[in-house]
From TrEMBL:
PANTHER family: CHROMO DOMAIN-CONTAINING PROTEIN (PTHR46148), RETROTRANSPOSON PROTEIN (PTHR46148:SF58)
Name of the protein this chain belongs to: Tf2-1-like SH3-like domain-containing protein
Ranges in coiled-coil conformation: none
GO MF terms held by the record: nucleic acid binding
Chain ranges of the Tf2-1-like SH3-like domain: 60-123
Annotated Pfam families: SH3_Tf2-1 (PF24626)
């Protein structure tokens, strides 16, 4: 029965003057210890691409990032088309390297006014992007729950093999 060697066998054999891996594959084996360094540098390069150095000045306008509870629609839209920011709000002062104090309205009294830079996005002054927060109750984790007010329309679409019912709903956070 032939002897089966694993590729990580890195023990030196003086009779052949090399490791069994070198004899079998003709090159030196990279130990798993060096693999971690390669993996870490690769992960760092991916993280560095996404990292943005963002700085705000006092009196800059910023949007505040919000997220809905799981399975809840955001302002009547689901998925990637739903708004993810509310505001704009003014930056009062910089606190440390990556934190800013923001002037929040009374409706957001449960949210701490000092926020990490990842929770903010610069407002470019486009008034069409402003989402009103009247009637929206945010928790301290910046999440909210959409509540249906009334059903506006119903229809059934017939597909080849089944009927699909759709319902148009007026949500509490929408003015339209």
């Amino acid at each position: 029965m032939p002897l089966i060697e694993f590729p990580y066998n890195n023990s030196y054999h003086s009779s052949i003057g090399m490791t069994l891996f070198e004899a079998l594959y003709g090159r030196r084996c990279k130990s798993p210890i060096s693999w971690f360094e390669v993996a870490q540098s690769r992960q760092k390069s991916y993280a560095d691409i996404r990292c943005r150095d963002i700085e705000f000045q006092v009196d800059d306008c910023v949007f505040l990032k919000v997220s809905p509870m799981k399975g809840v629609m955001r302002f009547g839209r689901k998925g990637k088309l739903s708004p993810r920011y509310i505001g704009p709000y003014k930056v009062i002062r910089r606190v440390g390297q990556v934190a800013y104090e923001v002037d929040l309205p009374r409706e957001l009294v449960v949210v701490h006014p000092i926020l990490h830079v990842s929770m903010l996005r610069k407002c470019l002054g486009d008034p069409t992007q402003v989402i009103p927060i009247e009637g929206m109750e945010l928790s301290e984790h910046l999440s909210y729950e959409e509540v249906p007010v009334e059903i506006l329309d119903r229809q059934v679409r017939k597909l080849r093999t089944k009927d699909v019912a759709s319902v148009k709903v007026l949500w509490r956070s929408q003015n339209i």
